[in-house]
Amino acid sequence: MPKMRKKSDLPTKICAACGRPFTWRKKWERDWENVRYCSDACRARGKADDEPKSG
């Protein structure tokens, strides 16, 4: 079995919606460069902020 990594050794980013730091996850392994949000809730809020408001 491969050696386990400490969570503190994993790369981190800052969420574009809430500004909190978040850590690399295995499910983001292939797409880490494009990950911008820490959760689905932040992604939904971030996309709502990106859309131009009509009116």
From TrEMBL:
It comes from the Bacteria. InterPro entries: UCP037205 (IPR017136). This is Uncharacterized protein Caur_1846. It comes from uncultured Sphingomonadaceae bacterium.
